[in-house]
């Protein structure tokens, strides 16, 4: 049963991700990407990581994609106004993306297999365990990530200010 | 194996019946909220309100529904066909989904088997509600964009900016409740507020912030910028007619019903009331108490709509970003200090 749900979600996420790339209309792209996020959230639920699933929905589908859609609507982009790149650009972009793929595959191939601790009840992804892990074992990276976000927010506000005197 | 299958089948039937009852209840309450709204408006403006269809106009929602269904279903030529059709449905779907995690009572005994009065006890219940609230904006945005009308687009953009802004303060108010109760599950939150130990006594500021944000998230006056008729004709649903428009208007009332139920559960004890055991009447007392509280808050929502004039858009943004968010952060810090001092 779980396997069938997994396969359905996987097929949906791959198809919607491809449609997101191939469709001409930017607003349709955003909607396909939202569907991709939903199917990935479904995978998290299958892994009993409900907290991760719901945070994934809140942050990506509920906040980031809303802002994407907002900007697309304000700029009024559509299929007709999409800039067409020349063939040289397309070729170099394809080569660069292919090189990135080769690098990623090479990096992942040589990596060490991490042993995930299997708990009997599969409660690794539940919010209590995740919170304990974040605030004890991984507290330094967690705090550093928080400071990084704060710096990014301050930077965005500074860039957004027009009459800035430095 | 067979025994296991039987248990799951029984559970499945139980849940499906519960979902159908809740679905019917939600639609019924939403339908009669439209009647209630017009009666409350009439009362506040010293009029009679609907009184022609049936005794006291009680059949008015049915007549309105029949009108919505039989009107011409017009679609603009330049509309984005599929998105235009899908958007009202998506809005309705999201509005209905949120009711799944609200605990309506402790347990109901039916034919000798105890039945939990909650569709799904997720251990992240309150985050589930936040998630679906944040998705509510898509129905408005996509519908407004797909209509291919500048007033619809303005309404859609206003709605999305407003919802994203007020979600922040709402989330911060919820964090304070979570710190106080130590759980994300709505079932446990309701159980902890037994008797008169309601969260409102510890979180008065948090309740105020959450309440104002709920008004904004439901697009209710004085925050109904998205359909401000003096500036935007009809806002995001200008180009919609017949039952597609009906879906938008109806989903707004469903949202109002659910957010009033969430307010009652988070701050006003859920199905608890001092002196009343939620287990009375075979467990039906809990739902009755929660519904009574919910109806009271629906009345307050309507009272506010017909009393306070609409905000200006810059006032709305200033209130959200410069008043509610700092207040919510202050509330969070105070709650944290309080929990640290008094929990031991």
Strand content of chain A: under 5%
- Tally of strands of chain A: 0
| The CATH topology of the domain at 1-78 in chain A | Four Helix Bundle (Hemerythrin (Met), subunit A)
Radius of gyration from the alpha-carbon trace of chain A, in angstroms: 20 Å
Principal-axes geometry of chain B comes out as: globular
Total strands of chain B: the figure is: 2
* Rg on CA atoms of chain B, Å: 21 Å
Give the biggest sheet of chain B.
2 strands, antiparallel
Proportion of strand residues of chain B: under 5%
Low-confidence stretches of chain B: none
Helical segment tally of chain A? 6
Strand order of the largest sheet of chain B: 1-2
Helicity range of chain A: over 70%
Structure class of chain A: mainly alpha
What is the residue-averaged pLDDT of chain B? 84
Task: Reconstruct the topology from this structure.
The complex is a heterodimer of chains A (166) and B (344).
Chain A: H1 2-22, H2 26-46, H3 50-75, H4 87-109, H5 127-135, H6 139-160
Helix pairs in contact in A: 1-2, 2-3
Chain B: H1 2-44, H2 60-70, H3 81-97, E1 107-110, E2 113-116, H4 125-146, H5 150-181, H6 186-192, H7 204-217, H8 229-232, H9 242-267, H10 285-305, H11 313-342
Antiparallel strand pairs in B: 1-2
Helix pairs in contact in B: 1-9, 1-10, 2-9, 3-4, 3-9, 4-5, 5-7, 5-11, 7-9, 7-11, 9-10
Description of the structure:
The complex is a heterodimer of chains A (166) and B (344). With 166 residues, chain A is mainly α. Chain A is 73% helix and 0% strand. The mean pLDDT of chain A is 82. The relative contact order of chain B is 0.14. Chain B starts with a helix and ends with a helix. Classes of the chains: A mainly alpha (166), B mainly alpha (344).
Brief sketch in words of this structure:
With 166 residues, chain A is mainly α. In chain A, 73% of the residues lie in helices and 0% in strands. Chain A starts with a helix and ends in a 6-residue tail after the last helix.
């Amino acid at each position: 049963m779980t396997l069938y749900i997994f396969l359905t979600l996987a097929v949906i996420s791959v198809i919607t991700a491809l449609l997101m790339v191939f469709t001409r209309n930017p607003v349709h792209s955003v909607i396909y990407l939202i569907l991709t996020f939903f199917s990935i959230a479904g995978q998290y639920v299958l892994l009993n990581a409900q907290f991760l699933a719901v945070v994934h929905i809140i942050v990506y589908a509920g906040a980031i994609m809303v802002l994407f859609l907002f900007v697309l609507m304000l700029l009024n982009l559509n299929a007709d106004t999409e800039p067409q790149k020349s063939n040289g650009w397309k070729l170099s972009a394809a080569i660069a993306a292919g090189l990135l793929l080769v690098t990623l595959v090479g990096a992942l191939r040589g990596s060490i297999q991490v042993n995930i601790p299997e708990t009997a009840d599969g409660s690794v992804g539940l919010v209590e365990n995740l919170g304990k892990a974040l605030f004890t074992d991984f507290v330094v990276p967690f705090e550093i990530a928080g400071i990084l976000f704060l710096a990014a927010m301050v930077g965005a506000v500074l860039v957004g200010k027009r009459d800035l005197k430095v | 194996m067979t025994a296991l299958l039987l248990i799951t089948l029984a559970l499945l039937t139980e849940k499906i019946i519960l979902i159908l009852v809740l679905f019917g209840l939600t639609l019924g309450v939403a339908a009669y909220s439209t009647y209630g709204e017009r009666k409350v408006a009439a009362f506040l403006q010293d009029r009679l309100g609907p009184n022609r269809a049936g005794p006291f106009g009680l059949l008015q929602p049915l007549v309105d529904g029949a009108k919505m269904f039989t009107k011409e279903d017009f679609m603009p030529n330049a509309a984005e066909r599929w998105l235009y059709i899908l958007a009202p449905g998506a809005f309705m779907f999201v509005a209905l989904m949120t009711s799944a995690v609200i605990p309506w009572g402790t347990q109901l005994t039916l034919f000798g088997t105890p039945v939990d009065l909650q569709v799904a006890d997720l251990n992240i219940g309150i985050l589930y509600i936040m998630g679906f609230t944040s998705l509510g904006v898509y129905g408005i945005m996509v519908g407004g964009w797909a209509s291919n009308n500048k007033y619809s687009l303005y309404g859609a953009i206003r709605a999305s900016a407003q919802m994203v802004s007020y979600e922040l303060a709402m989330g911060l108010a919820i964090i304070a409740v979570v710190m106080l109760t130590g759980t994300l599950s709505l079932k446990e939150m309701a159980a902890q507020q037994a008797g008169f130990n309601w969260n409102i006594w510890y979180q008065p500021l948090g309740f105020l912030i959450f309440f104002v944000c709920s008004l904004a998230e439901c697009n209710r006056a004085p925050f109904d910028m998205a359909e401000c008729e003096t500036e935007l004709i009809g806002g995001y649903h200008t180009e919609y007619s017949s039952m597609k428009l009906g879906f938008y208007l109806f989903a707004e009332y469903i949202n109002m019903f659910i957010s009033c139920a969430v307010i009652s559960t988070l701050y006003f004890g859920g199905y608890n009331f001092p002196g009343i055991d939620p287990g009375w009447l075979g467990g039906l007392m809990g739902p009755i108490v929660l519904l009574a509280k919910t109806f009271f808050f629906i009345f307050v929502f309507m009272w506010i709509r017909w009393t306070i004039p609409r905000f200006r858009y810059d006032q709305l943004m200033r209130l959200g970003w410069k008043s509610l968010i700092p207040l919510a952060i202050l509330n969070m810090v105070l709650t944290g200090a309080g929990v640290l001092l008094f929990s031991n």
